[in-house]
Task: inverse folding
């Protein structure tokens, strides 16, 4: 939100008016079907972006005026609770991004299938922006979508080449191992995963 358009009169905040009258539970159910985030995380992440200053988001203002700013929020929040919701939103976005990128890199999807996934994701994102009344310039929207699509195509193509290269390396290693008289495995071929296993068990 443009700082010149930002008002500290909560009644003048125009976002989320399209869901005025909807309950938190209904909004939350709607989001759960389409995303990983909750209604609380959606509302607060938008407010933190809109009420952002050079020194950070105005969390006290957001928390104190939350019911007036967002129709489906009924309680005030402490600055700590606002920060927690924003942190939870960022954490889920990071995890979703890592999951999607892994899916693109592991060779499970073709470039065409990734295009379809990106299209569906962009449709949901665009719909959420429309509901919360966030204006996005059409040219900017197209540019972002094109850049993401190009990047994901490059990821898919590069990952495919890497997977084929690794398969070829493994085949060559197996052939070298079979050619040894005593069939003793090469220690350089051993993969140590204990550190990663420790990370998994710690979680």
Result:
């Amino acid at each position: 939100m443009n700082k010149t358009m930002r008002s500290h009169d909560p009644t003048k905040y125009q976002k989320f008016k399209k869901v005025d009258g909807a309950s938190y539970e209904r909004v939350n159910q709607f989001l759960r079907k389409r995303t990983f985030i909750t209604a609380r995380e959606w509302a607060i992440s938008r407010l933190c972006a809109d009420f952002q200053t050079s020194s950070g988001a105005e969390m006290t203002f957001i928390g104190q005026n939350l019911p007036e700013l967002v129709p489906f929020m009924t309680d005030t929040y402490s600055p700590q609770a606002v920060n927690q919701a924003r942190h939870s939103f960022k954490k889920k976005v990071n995890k979703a991004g890592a999951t999607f990128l892994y899916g693109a890199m592991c060779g499970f999807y073709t470039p065409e299938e990734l295009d379809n996934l990106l299209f569906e994701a962009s449709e949901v994102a665009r719909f959420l922006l429309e509901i919360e009344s966030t204006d996005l310039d059409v040219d900017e929207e197209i540019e972002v979508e094109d850049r993401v699509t190009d990047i994901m195509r490059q990821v898919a193509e590069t990952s495919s080449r890497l997977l084929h290269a690794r398969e070829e390396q493994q085949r060559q290693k197996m052939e070298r191992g079979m050619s040894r008289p005593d069939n003793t495995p090469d220690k350089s071929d051993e993969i140590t995963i204990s550190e990663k296993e420790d990370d998994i068990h710690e979680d």
The radius of gyration is 24 Å. The CA atoms of residues 135 and 191 lie 51 Å apart.
